[in-house]
Amino acid sequence: MPTADDTPLSVSELNRRARQALEQDVGDVWVEGELSGVSRPASGHVYFTLKDERAQLRCALFRTRARFVAAPLRDGDRVKVRGRVSLFEPRGDYQLIAEAVQAVGEGELLAAFERLKAKLDAEGVFANARPLPYPPRHLLVLTSPTGAAIRDVLAVLAARWPLVQVTLIPVPVQGREAAPALIAALGLLNRQSALDPARDAVLVTRGGGSLEDLWAFNDEHLARAIFHSRLPVMSAVGHEVDVTLADFAADRRAPTPSAAAEQLVPDRRELLQRLAVLENRLRRAQRARLDTEAQRLDHLRARLRHPGEVLAFRRRQLAQLEGRLHRAMRVRLEAARHEERQWRRRLALRSPERLLEQADRRLGLARQRLHQAMPRELARHRERLAALVRELQAVSPLAVLGRGYAILEDDAGRVIRRADDAHPRQRLDARLGEGRLRLEVLARLEEP
């Protein structure tokens, strides 16, 4: 118990002394651990928690130092942080003011996540891609009844599609009990779906958090339960940057609970607007169709006549056609008769008896001309032949031979014209005016 002379300290004074003691006694240190709960507000400062298996330490990396950190800070990364231990006096929070951050390897949780993801992917657990009913008749939501996720989902569904029936299945979404509870609830819903076919879709969701907060949705057994679910499952866990094994195993993933609700149901306001547009188009089309049909009816009414008028008109047409037919028949018959007369005249001109008579007359005249022309032609040809004979005798070599000349020929039939054409002892044929002689050349005589 304090004595009467002890003066009590104010809270701010105590926090100030504690901060000074920490900064003086500990000073700058290097601390290694795993990042968690990394936050980047608009101020540009970075706040995170550095932890190991047994403890955790709040850290602050101010904007002037954060710009010198090359690698992005992500939950689950294992890093070394250099800084000074201090205390945030307004809240009394013990923290490390970081000066530098260096990565030392992948965090244990992320490493486990990647190993399990690769294993389940190789087994085909992430192969689900069944279509979800759009919109579902009865949506089953597995989430915490007190979390922000269910409020977001219900608000979006009520605004977009209030016709959908929603049943909340309250389950823990964080901690060791979360994964078994989700698996049991999902199995129960699949068994009950056989009794109530209207239950046609399941939404597994929760709000954002650190990697540790969302770790229940990285459970291997939960991923397998989602994969084997007969009901199609949509997963919407955390924020847009958060990805869990439940997201991969589900038939469809949404980045946030609100986005999941938007994907599950259409927007009734858009449908109402579209319905209004279609209604206006239908009215315009109906009005245009009625106007067109009215015009067509007026046109048909104008064309419509009394049957008696139509019959009278047809009778007049028939009478006209009958008259045209009779006139055409008369013209055709007259033309046929005229053609027949022409053929008869041509046939009469070319009668076989008449042709024979004409041919017989021509034959008699030709015979008479032949008898008259034959003696004249024979006399003329005789005179011409006698003249040719006289001319032939005048130029015939035989006539020359008759005057005592002879033609000498060698054995080849060549005519000997000069003495040099023959040689002594050569045999020659001599052709005379009457007969031939076989001669032998004794010698060539020189011409005087």
TrEMBL record:
Taxonomic path: Bacteria, Pseudomonadati, Pseudomonadota, Gammaproteobacteria, Oceanospirillales
Task performed by this protein: Bidirectionally degrades single-stranded DNA into large acid-insoluble oligonucleotides, which are then degraded further into small acid-soluble oligonucleotides.
EC number(s) stated in the UniProt entry for this protein: 3.1.11.6
Ranges in a coiled coil: 268-295
GO cellular component, one term: cytoplasm
Keywords noted in UniProt: Coiled coil, Cytoplasm, Exonuclease, Hydrolase, Nuclease
Organism: Halomonas beimenensis
Similarity-based family: Belongs to the XseA family.
Domain OB-fold nucleic acid binding stretches: 9-101
Subcellular localization: Cytoplasm
Subunit structure: Heterooligomer composed of large and small subunits.
Main localization (coarse): cytoplasm
Enzyme class: hydrolase
Catalytic activity: Exonucleolytic cleavage in either 5'- to 3'- or 3'- to 5'-direction to yield nucleoside 5'-phosphates
Entry's Gene Ontology molecular function annotations: exodeoxyribonuclease VII activity; nucleic acid binding
Domain of life: Bacteria
Gene Ontology terms: biological process: DNA catabolic process
InterPro entries documented for this protein: Exonuc_VII_L, Exonuc_VII_lsu_C, OB-fold_nuc-bd_dom
Protein name: Exodeoxyribonuclease 7 large subunit
Domain Exonuclease VII large subunit C-terminal: 128-439
